[in-house]
Amino acid sequence: MRLLLIVNPTASSMTPRRRVKVQQLLGEHHRLEVAETYRRGHATRLARTAARDGIDVVVVAAGDGTLNEAADGLIGTETALAPLPGGSTNVFARTLGIPHSIIPATEQLMVSLDAQSFQRVGVGAGNGRHFLFHLGAGFDAEVIEQVERRHWVKRWLAHPVFAVTAATTFLRGFDRERPAYRVEDADGTPIADGYFAIVSNTKPYAFFGPRPLTVTHEAGLDRALALTMFTRLEVGPTIAAIGSALARGKRLSKNDAVLQRADLETLTFVAYQGPFPWQVDGDYLGEVERLEVHYVPDCLTLVVPRARGKPH
């Protein structure tokens, strides 16, 4: 089997020693090529070229941002994507049941490749950019933009930095008086106004240390998209929502400041006061006045752990 290993050498979990071990394991029984990525968009081009050249599997040893780029380059091709946990959080890899440590994850990948454990799945897309696990519009995208300004700190203290930045953005830096946009369904009918929305392709939304943050139980790689949207950003309901998410989201549906919908094929965000920030899979993409989101079924092949069931 022909493999391309895409490595982000600046990713928080990728040391030279670990990289050498990963390459040794993957190269024992497969034809391995290696490419490094340093700049935004590079992994997309590498993956797209690999698919065109007949590579069987693109293995990504990096964080969720680089993994997202590689997936974007493989959409609609037969080349499979295999995540390895090279970043600080590795949401998608952990969602698939891949170990959080890169060497055990690589050993697991070798078993999956030998068993040809592949699964064809659907993903989401926002304004043409595909996402594996979620898209965020509004508040969380603003937090990510602020964190990326301190990327040198994020490498070592990712979760504390996110927590502090989220708190300061909520209290001082984000307009909680006027909704940022309205959300419309496929035929243009308004659903609601919102300040912060998560469009989920999988669950959980993210991880805080070892704990999953679950905002919906109605998302999975075998079904269309789920929407979780804050129609108000008040202190009490927001704190309650965070507590629920840390407790696996069991009570979030009862929060009257949160609107939830499931199995959505298409939805559109339309700005009210001006452009609003957005992100996919934790990668900040700037500001837009209109964001068209849709589900893309049966478009990506994943290498999944042999013993696990359907990704959720």
Number of strands: 18
CATH 2nd-level architecture of the largest domain: Sandwich
Instruction: Label the structural class.
Output: alpha+beta
CATH topology of the largest domain: Tumour Suppressor Smad4
Polypeptide structure, described:
The chain is of the alpha+beta class and 312 residues long. It has helices at residues 16-27, 42-52, 64-74, 91-95, 102-114, 139-148, 151-173, 235-246; strands at 2-7, 31-36, 57-62, 80-85, 118-126, 129-131, 134-138, 181-184, 190-194, 196-200, 206-208, 211-213, 225-230, 258-264, 266-271, 276-280, 283-288, 290-303. The chain folds into 2 domains: 2-116, Probable inorganic polyphosphate/atp-NAD kinase, domain 1 (Rossmann fold, 3-Layer(aba) Sandwich); 131-297, Sandwich (Tumour Suppressor Smad4). The chain is built from 8 helices and 18 strands. The two termini are 27 Å apart. The relative contact order is 0.16. Residues 308-312 have low confidence and may be disordered.
